[in-house]
Each structure stands twice: as C-alpha cells, then as structure tokens.
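Sequence in, structure out.
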Amino acid sequence: MTLLLVQALNGVQLGLTLFLIAAGLTLVFGVMDFINLAHGVQYMVGAYLAVSFYDASGSFLLALVGASLATGALGLLLEALVFRRLMGRGHLDQVLATFGLILTIGELVRLIWGTSPLQLPVPRLLSGAVPLMSGMGYPVYRIMLIVVGLAVAGLMALVIGRTKIGMQLRAGASNAAMVNALGVDIHRMFRLVFGVGAMLAGFAGVLAAPLVSVEAGMSDNLLILAFVVIVVGGVGSVRGAFIAAILVGLVDTLGRSLVTALALALLPPMAAGHVGPALASMLIYLFMAAVLAVRPAGLFGVRA
C-alpha cells in the first residue's frame, strides 16, 4: 500500500507537469488551429536557462522566475519570426517548419551548454521528506510540485472562466473567424497564447530540472505525452487537458508498477523483465484508443 501511494503521488506529479506543457499547446492548437511541434523545446530551454540563472545568482527562486520569463520571451520571438508566417497554411507546412525548429534549437543548445548533462540542485528548504507508512518518506520537493501545479491549474481556470480575455479565448477556440469579425484583435490573442504557453512550458522545465538530467532531447518523450493529453482531453479544452493529464500520469506511473508485478506473477523472471516494460509502455496509448472509441472528440472536445 505504501508503494501504491508513492506511485500514485508520482503519477499526479507527472500529470501536473504534463498539464503545464499541454495547457499552452492545446490553446495554440484549439484557438489557432496551429500544430506546434517545437512547443516541447521550450520546456528544455527553460531547464537550461534555469541552470544558468542559478549558477549566476545562487537562488532557485530567481532562476525559476528568470527562466520562465525568458522562455516566454522566446515564445514571442518565435511567434514573430516563424509562427506568424505559417498561420493559415496547411498542417503539413506547420509540422515541417516546427520540426525544423526542434533540430535547430537542439543544436543551439548543444553549442551553448555543451553535450554533457547538467543538474539543477533541489532548494535547501525543500530537500527533506515527509514520512509515510512503514517509515518510507516522500520528497518535500515533489509535494511542492503537486501544490504549485494545482495552484497554476486553479489560476488558469479562474482566468479562462471568469475574465474577459478568458471569454475571448473560449470563443476563439469555438470559432476564431467569428471572434475576429466581432472586432477582437485575434492576432494579439494569438501572441498572448504563444507567450503564455511558452512561459508555462519553461516553468515546467525549471520545476522538473532538479528531478531529471538537463540535456538536449529531454523534452521528446514529454511532448508525445502532451499530445496524448490533448487528444484525450479534447483539443482546445484546458479543463480537458487538466483531467487528461492527471489520468495519463496515473496510468503511466501505476501501470508500470502493476503490469511489471503481474508479469512477474505469471511469467518466469527473465521473460517478465522483457514483457512487463514493453506492455507498460503501451498502456497510455491503449488508454487513448479506449477514450477515442467512446468519445472521438476527447473527453471535453467540441462535437463536430
């Protein structure tokens, strides 16, 4: 039971990290009908910038704020130089151009920071552990990530559900052309979504940096999971992205433990060592297929 609780907490923490990445991506896709494969590299850049800010200041808080703002500025710069010229073009053009950005930014990261993995230390105040059952502790830093992720989700729900700009975003996700015809500056809205989405991705990268190695390509797997979250939750739905992110995080984390344990109970140890991880890596895609079989537009998608 202790192990199950720890894995469930890890699943929630992973889900909230995915939400910070997927929230901006689903708005970009839903409001602008724009496929931005380069969204994940902003998560990676945020982690690298955090390491640099921390080395310069020695403060994790300054690294968090500075890297998040710098990543948001990078998103606005990419919107002005690249994304704006791809608006209204086909999805294939957008995929090819943003995939090229992944390669370009990845090489720039290697040139600036090198190829060796970097590490951002856990803040001293958050370096302890909270005791759980059977004397097992759970890191305070991971608990902080869960609390911060829930706070950001609540703030986004408040902004999108209770403010004028949130109303415009929801209307833009339903019918961007009509919103533009009614006098809303849709281009300013696009810039806002790109900037905030990039900042959230960078914010997630900073928070994840003390738990993982900061290296080129660190965002590849998370970007795939973020697209799974968007598909399961429904394109353009922030509420759907939040619920889907938690579900995907739990399915991925708990599934790896349960499937491996089940394989060990049914198969010889050597066979279970191969079959368990292989099946576990498929679970989130089986989960996505099951959701789409019942709700083709996702859990909270707009019915076509």
